Amino acid sequence: MRRFVLLLALIPAMSALAANPKATALAKDADRLYKDNKYKEAAETLKLAWEAEPTALYLYNIARAYDQAAELELSLEYYRKYVGLPSDETQPDLVKKANLAMDRLRTLVARGEADKKLRDAEKQRLEDDAKKAEARADAEAAEARKQRREFEAKEKARREETEKRVNGRKLAAYVTGGVAVAGLGMALGFGLAANGNKDAFRKAETLADKQQLEAATRTTAAVSDISLIVGVAAAVATVVIYPKGPDEPDKAVSVAFVPVVGGGAMANVGVTF
Q1: Of 82, 90, 204, 253, which is the most buried if we count CB atoms within 10 A?
Q2: Are 220 and 194 in contact (CB under 8 A)?
Q3: Is the pTM of this model over 0.85?
Q4: Across residues 253-257, what is the average pLDDT?
């Protein structure tokens, strides 16, 4: 274990020379602290001894204690103070040891500074990477929000367009439904009228009345047939047009009437998807 150089041997000599009792007591306390591996406390105690009694050996031992405590800068400072004293106050072998110690400490300090620079550079790099990652995350989040807003806008427009289309088809279905009801009603009415004319025709006694009732019967029967066809076609169109769901494709319905020779008409219902 490293010891203070000549510290205990110095104390009796200092006492013989009527050294400062306070400095001597502090030196003894410092030696005890050093033996207990309390190097920094030993150095601080020796500094008080130095203030009470400036003795060159105190400076050397302060440097040694700070060296053991890994306080490299402070150790260098006190080694420099020691070797900077006049030669008649120092010991050549201790000056040599102090110089060797300073060389070692300078290397350690330089290495520590280099390591610190590397650590600082790595820390800065990590901080820069973290900032870049955060910036990328913010940009991606902003882009995601933008895409979500665009999607929501498109989806809203699609829903509105679908609702508009469905409402239009419903309206068209209501119209064709009304036409179907009216056509079927007219078919029933004119059918009853045709039957009435037919009964009247049977009961007519004159040729003129029979001819008039025959023409009326043909006319009402034709209108009834046409009304029935229109009503059925409109009913079919209503069923086809009325939307079954929002995603059902649009359908176009066409109704064509074809006259039949001899009276009446035929209807054709066409559906286009």
Answers
A1: 82
A2: yes
A3: no
A4: 59
